[in-house]
Specification:
The complex is a heterodimer of chains A (318) and B (677). Chain A is mostly helical and 318 residues long. In chain A, 80% of the residues lie in helices and 0% in strands. Chain A has 2 domains: 72 residues; 181 residues, MetI-like fold. In chain A, helix 1 packs antiparallel against helix 12, helix 10 packs across helix 11 and helix 10 packs antiparallel against helix 12. The chains are: A mainly alpha (318), B alpha/beta (677).
Chain lengths: 318, 677
């Protein structure tokens, strides 16, 4: 068990290393660089040279990568090229804001998804299932930027219940953020919830059709007892990994939604820094997003391992 | 007058087809179960026997519904009861022992909890009393150390142990009626015999009525007082076990019994043509008309009813039952003995073959070395002559399929080598094998559903070897495909069919055709009839034998079914835990089994005859790994000598009839011990 955890963490670190290499190479091969973007039409001759000198772009790429990577290992992402600010300071509050948004969506989305999935499975092919399934399939097919725009139109503009655009400073407290994140949370969690509900539904249906559930019924186990003891533990286990994937996938949704709502999070930063060729910021973002991704999957794998008696004893035997 | 526990009246269960038609799976079933009686329900897959058993608990599967009729348990119709009411009957009054105990135990709950759950629901015992009862039940089904067993999860038990747990769970509520749905299918022969013995004991002990559903007439014969034979959703025969199995008066039962290979009758059994009709396809006439050798025009138009015949105490659904009554009994001239032209030249030689499944360390993988002191298969020495059928038999885990895979090149050997036609060594690595060797050795798999590509038509499937090995194209290819299909009795119109449009027997024929298309010298048959119904199995066996006689092919035939092996093989090799125990001509091995394991194995075979009881010599403990030292069978051997068996690998001894065994006990002593028992 212990070795397995170590092995998984090591694999995660290797993944992160590869991610950093790929983002570095990706930004490197794009035409133009930070100085040409920054100087625009004056990007030639001495001005360009001076800019290169100042930003350290005259050093070969691999040297830049090594010195950057060394910094990251010590928790320092270096300086942003365009703003010439410490990246840690730029990112800090934005990461916090995005995390607030993502965790609110997850905390609301997962319980709703589980509930809907279980209801639709238990009432399979009957009215509750038909209604909920239609709605979930519908909301699964609408991309966030459309549902976000529609939400703004209906709730903010027509009904005037909630602010349509988030206008708070980047370092606003969570309390200040709260009323503003309601619409973004709805927009983000809609697809995720629908997706997860479908997964849970099919998983529960599969377990309901299994021999051991039929056996439990034939043993005379009362319905709800059967659902809670025999069905759900077995049906939700495989769902854990799906949930992890969905959460990781939600990060992408956060980026898009933030832009629509003008939310001061990572989303806008990603887009701005890519168009500014701000390599250190892009790299920092890539590493942060990838770490979250790897971390969530690691946690999901380990939870499954702890909860599944079959896998647990396999590990002990080894 | 006996008390009736359950009475079924005119029960019809069916489903709604996509066209909106009502299609019946059970048609007008009426029968009753008396107190203390064990009723066997027998039928092939699709006959509706499991649906009937479930209906007896008031359970109808998702998608099916009751069209008419009732299932009366005492004075209640189970099919009209509410779930709440059924919960008080299920597990308490009527309990079920499922087909596949491994899948019927909830994986995340401990054995003890699952039995405790039944006790809590159906008894008034307190916690301490229940704990005592759990141990008592586990003891009753003869599971070792009940206390630790209760703490285990289902996957930590062997198949036989899981089945015993299911029995214990069913007994928890002391039910009046016990339904058993194929309870021993999928278990090893020795385990099966032990579980059946246990069930017989329980029936005697508790006086519970039992309904035993199975496709296996051998198992039915051992446990039942009365037998119901089902065909295409109808009861076709219902009567006392002896009269049904010894003098069947329905043509289906008659044909079925003739198609079962028996240990006491060497040779290939007669086959029954055709297969069971799809539900809903028979609109009028007798549903067995198509396959019946006694039918006339009357049977085509009119459906026979289930008539009770006073003299025999039997109900039968056939116009012609009198004819069958006067027919000669099931006897030996229904068997075709096999005669193979065996040439004295060796076609395949396995010397000192060992195969390991152990996961290799990184360094060993790099060096292409296999490091395992106790490999799954060890020291196999077998010569196979041209034209011979050699059978490999043994229980699950005996390594028989593993050896086949190595011969085919799908699995690397650890040590030893495999030689083809005396001097051509078959490479360990499939990619380095000469294409002509690949053609020469073909494999037929157990399950045609998985071995035929579902997206290929029969034409494409059979064309593969022809194109690959002979480079045939166009008309030549098509003619050859038709010729090959003709050999396995499939007409030209099968060319465009997909595997899903074929019955189980037809699919296996296509697999046989694909193997023969390569004109192989050796065909490896891996449990080729295990997934088939009995009536179809006989047809496939006959086909294999005919093709062999035509082409002089050599077969290596792997099966767990000892009666099938008896029917088709010239020579048999008995394996235990990947080590050879005995090898010799089938006739002698079956008549005079010398090695203690062969004796145990053959003793446990169930014959479809209630008067031949299995002999249970050894315990059915399952060993996960072969022992490191000494004889492979030391753990279960009823005749173990002592330390010598534990420390030294037994030497080969030759028995007078040409079979050899690997045992420390002198052959004379073994014979004497067998006689005194």
């Amino acid at each position: 068990m212990f070795f397995l955890v170590i092995k998984r963490i090591l694999l995660g670190l290797i993944t992160l290393f590869i991610v950093s290499l790929i983002t570095f190479a990706g930004v490197e091969v794009l035409p133009g660089d930070a100085c040409t973007t920054y100087l625009e039409r004056q990007a030639f001759g001495e001005a360009l040279e001076a800019c290169y000198q100042r930003l350290g772009l005259n050093v070969p790429a691999y040297e830049r990568y090594i010195s950057w990577a060394w910094g990251v290992l010590q928790g320092d992402f270096g300086y942003s090229l365009s703003g010439e600010m410490k990246i840690n300071e730029v990112l800090g509050p934005k990461v916090k804001n995005s995390l607030v948004l993502a965790s609110a969506s997850i905390l609301i989305g997962i319980p709703i998804a589980l509930l809907l999935g279980i209801i639709t499975a238990l009432w399979r092919d009957r009215l509750p299932d038909i209604i909920i399934s239609t709605v979930t399939i519908f909301s699964m097919t609408i991309p966030e930027f459309i549902s976000a725009t529609l939400l703004i139109l209906i709730v903010a503009i027509w009904l005037e219940w909630l602010p349509g655009i988030v206008i708070v400073p980047t370092d606003a407290s969570i309390y200040e953020l709260l009323p503003n994140i309601i619409l973004p949370v709805i927009a983000i969690s809609m697809i995720m919830t629908a997706h997860m509900a479908r997964m849970v539904r099919s998983s529960v249906i599969q377990v309901m059709a299994s021999d051991y559930v039929q056996m439990a019924i034939l043993k005379g186990v009362p319905y709800w007892k059967m659902v809670f003891r025999h069905v759900l533990p077995n049906a939700l286990l495989p769902a854990i990994n799906v949930v992890a994937l969905t959460i990781a996938w939600l990060l992408g949704g956060v980026v898009v939604t933030e832009v629509v709502f003008n939310y001061p999070g990572l989303g806008r930063l990603v887009i701005e820094s890519i168009s500014n060729r701000d390599l250190p910021v892009v790299q920092a973002l890539a590493i942060i997003l990838a770490s979250i991704y790897v971390g969530i999957n690691l946690i999901a794998d380990l939870t499954t391992l702890m909860l599944n008696p079959r896998l647990k004893s396999l590990q002990i035997k080894k | 007058m006996k008390t009736i526990v359950q009475k079924i009246n005119n029960l019809t269960i069916g489903f709604q087809s996509q066209k909106g038609e009502q299609i019946s799976i059970l048609k007008n079933i009426s029968t009753s179960i008396n107190q203390g009686e064990t009723v066997g329900i027998v039928g092939e897959s699709g006959s509706g026997k499991s649906t009937l058993a479930l209906a007896m608990m008031g359970y109808v599967k998702h998608g099916l519904f009751t069209i008419s009729g009732e299932c009366m348990f005492h004075s209640n119709n189970l099919l009209e009861m509410k779930n709440k009411e059924l919960e008080n009957i299920r597990g308490r009054k009527i309990a079920m022992i499922p087909q596949n105990a491994g899948q019927s135990l909830t994986p995340n709950l401990k054995i003890g909890y699952q039995i405790d759950e039944a006790l809590r629901l159906h008894t008034d015992l307190n916690q301490a009393e229940r704990d005592g009862k759990i141990s008592e039940l586990l003891n009753k089904v003869r599971l070792p150390s009940p206390e630790t067993m209760a703490q285990r999860y289902p996957h930590e038990l062997s198949g036989g142990q899981q089945q015993r747990v299911a029995v214990a769970m069913a007994l928890a509520g002391s039910p009046e009626l016990l339904l058993l749905d194929e309870p021993t299918t999928g278990l090893d022969v020795t385990t099966q015999a032990h579980v059946l013995e246990l069930l017989n004991l329980i029936a005697k002990d508790t006086g519970t009525s039992m309904v035993y559903v199975s496709h296996d007439l051998g198992a039915i014969a051992q446990v039942s007082d009365r037998v119901i034979v089902m065909y295409s959703g109808e009861i076709v025969l219902d009567g006392p076990v002896r009269s049904i199995l010894k003098n069947p008066i329905h043509p289906y039962t008659y044909g079925l019994l003739k198609s079962i290979p028996k240990l006491s009758l060497p040779g290939l059994p007669n086959s029954m043509s055709g297969s069971q009709p799809q539900p809903g396809s028979i609109k009028k006439g007798c549903s067995f008309y198509e396959r019946c050798e006694f039918a006339d025009d009357d049977c085509k138009v009119n459906s026979p009813s289930l008539d009770f015949i006073e003299d025999l105490n039997t109900s039968v659904r056939c116009f012609k039952h009198n004819e069958l009554l006067n027919l000669n009994k099931l006897d030996s001239h229904n068997v075709k003995s096999i005669e193979n032209r065996i040439l004295k030249n060796e076609i395949l030689d396995l010397s000192n073959v060992s195969i390991s499944y152990a996961k290799q360390k990184f360094l060993d993988q790099l060096l292409n070395k296999i490091n395992d002191t106790n490999p799954t298969v060890k020291d196999i020495n077998i010569n196979i002559n041209k034209g011979e059928t050699l059978a490999l038999v043994g229980e699950s885990g005996s390594g028989k399929s593993t050896i086949l895979k190595s011969i085919a090149g799908l699995l690397k050997t650890k040590d030893g080598n495999i030689k083809f036609e005396k001097n051509k060594t078959l490479s360990n690595d499939l990619k380095q094998r000469d294409p002509s060797f690949l053609r020469a050795i073909q494999l037929i798999f157990q399950n045609p559903d998985e071995s035929l590509n579902p997206n290929h038509t029969v034409e494409e499937i059979v064309s593969q070897p022809l194109r690959l090995y002979f480079g045939l194209k166009g008309k030549e290819l098509k003619d050859k495909i038709i010729e090959v299909l003709d050999k396995v009795r499939l007409g030209e119109f099968y060319l465009t069919r997909y595997p899903r449009q074929l019955s189980g027997g037809e699919k296996q024929r296509v697999a046989v055709a694909r193997a023969f298309a390569a004109k192989p010298d050796i065909i490896l048959c891996d449990e080729v009839t295990s997934a088939l119904d009995v009536s179809v199995q006989a047809a496939v066996l006959n086909l294999l034998q005919e093709l062999k006689e035509d082409f002089g092919t050599t077969y290596i035939f792997v099966s767990h079914d000892l009666a099938v092996v008896r029917a088709i093989s010239d020579r048999v090799a008995v394996l235990y835990q990947g080590r050879l125990c005995e090898i010799g001509p089938s006739n002698y091995v079956y008549k005079f089994p010398s090695h203690p394991y062969t004796e145990v194995l053959l003793g446990a075979v169930l014959e479809p005859n209630p008067d031949i009881k299995p002999k249970l010599v050894a315990e059915d403990i399952v060993e996960e790994k072969p022992p490191e030292n000494g004889c492979s069978f030391q753990g279960r051997c009823p005749r173990i000598l002592g330390d010598i068996c534990k420390n030294e690998v037994p030497p080969w001894q030759t028995v007078e009839n040409g079979n050899s065994i690997r045992c420390h006990i002198k052959i004379e002593d073994l014979k004497n011990q067998q006689i005194t028992n």
